[in-house]
Amino acid sequence: MPDAQGSALATRDRGLVWHPYAPLDGPEPYAVEGASGVRLSLTAPGGAHHDVVDAMASWWCAVHGYRNPVLDAAAHEQLDRFSHVMFGGLTHEPAVRLAERLTAMAPGPMAHVFYADSGSVSVEVALKLSLQYQAAVGRPKRQRFLTVRGGYHGDTFAAMSVCDPVDGMHSAFPGALARQVFAPRPPAARLVHTPTGEERWETDRSAVEAWADEVRTLARTHADELAAVVVEPILQGAGGMHVYHPDCLRLLRDVSDEHGLLLVVDEIATGFGRTGRLFASEWADVTPDVLCVGKALTGGYLSLAAVLTTREVGEAITRSEFRALLHGPTFMANPLACAVANASVELVESTWKEQVPRVGRLLAEHLEPASALPHVADVRTLGAVGVVQLTSPVDVPLVTRAAVERGVWVRPFRDLVYTMPPYVCTDDDVRLIAEGIVGAVAQVHS
Question: Which residues are in coiled coils (predicted)?
Answer without folding.
Answer: none
